[in-house]
Every structure is written in C-alpha cells, then in structure tokens.
Amino acid sequence: MILGVCEWLSSRTNFTTKNFRILFVLLVLLGGFGIGAYLILWLVKVLSKD
Q1: Torsions phi, psi of 20, nearest 5?
Q2: CA dihedral of residues 23, 40, 12, 15 (deg, nearest 10)
Q3: Radius of gyration over alpha carbons of the chain, in Å?
Q4: Which is it for the CA torsion 6, 11, 13, 16, positive or negative?
Q5: What are phi and psi of 49, to 5 degrees?
Q6: pTM of the predicted model, to two decimals?
Q7: SS3 assignment for the chain
Q8: pLDDT of residue 35
Q9: pLDDT score, position 49
Q10: How far apart are CA 46 and CA 29, in angstroms?
Q11: What is the pLDDT of residues 1-50, one digit of tens each?
Q12: Degrees (nearest 5) of the Cα angle 50, 36, 18?
C-alpha cells in the first residue's frame, strides 16, 4: 500500500507483507474497516519512531 504500514507490521510480527495486504483489502471490502485501521496503524508507526 502507500504508507508502508504492511511492511512495518511484517517486520514486527511473523506474518508476511502479502498477508497483511490481503487482510487490509478484505477489511476494506467488508465494510471499510481497513481504511480506518490502516490510518491508525500509520499514526502508531509514525509516532513510535522505531
């Protein structure tokens, strides 16, 4: 995706980037929850400075 959230999450967990991308796409298609979750995780990523 655009802001690097999936790659950041995959570096912190045992899941691959591909799995996170599929998850976010499914969440967007199933009611739009993926957009909000993606933006919140982006804020966490930016503010964590890791």
Answers
A1: -70, -40
A2: 0
A3: 11
A4: positive
A5: 55, 35
A6: 0.79
A7: CCCCHHHHHHHHCCCCHHHHHHHHHHHHHCCCHHHHHHHHHHHHHHHHCC
A8: 87
A9: 73
A10: 26
A11: 578 899 999 999 999 999 999 998 998 999 888 888 889 999 999 998 76
A12: 65
Residue holding tokens 């979750």? 37
How many residues would you count in the chain?
50
Phi-psi sector, 15: left (phi>0), alpha (psi -120 to 50), beta = beta
Residue with structure tokens 């912190």?
12
State residue 15 phi and psi, 5-degree precision.
-95, 155
**Which residue carries 């199933």 as its tokens?**
30
- Round to whole Å and give the CA distance between 35 and 48: 20
